[in-house]
Here is the input.
Amino acid sequence: MSKKSKPSFVRTLVFLLSAAAAYVLIFLNIEKLNAFYLSKHIIPAISLLGTIVVVSYLYGNAVSCILGHLGIDSDH
Here is the structure.
C-alpha cells in the first residue's frame, strides 16, 4: 500500500457540500432541465454531457475523500 496522506477535512466537506448542492439544484429544477435537455439542438446535448461530467467529478471526489478518511485507498 502507498503511504499517501489522508485528504483534509475541509476538502472532504467542500466536495460533499458541492455534490449535495448539485443534486438538490438538479432535482428541484428537473422540469426546466428536461425541457432544455430534450430540445433538438446541439447546445443542450453538450450541456447535458457537461452536467454529467461535473456531477460525476464532484461525487467521485467526495466518495474518494470519505474512503481516504476510512483508510481505504486505491493504487490507481
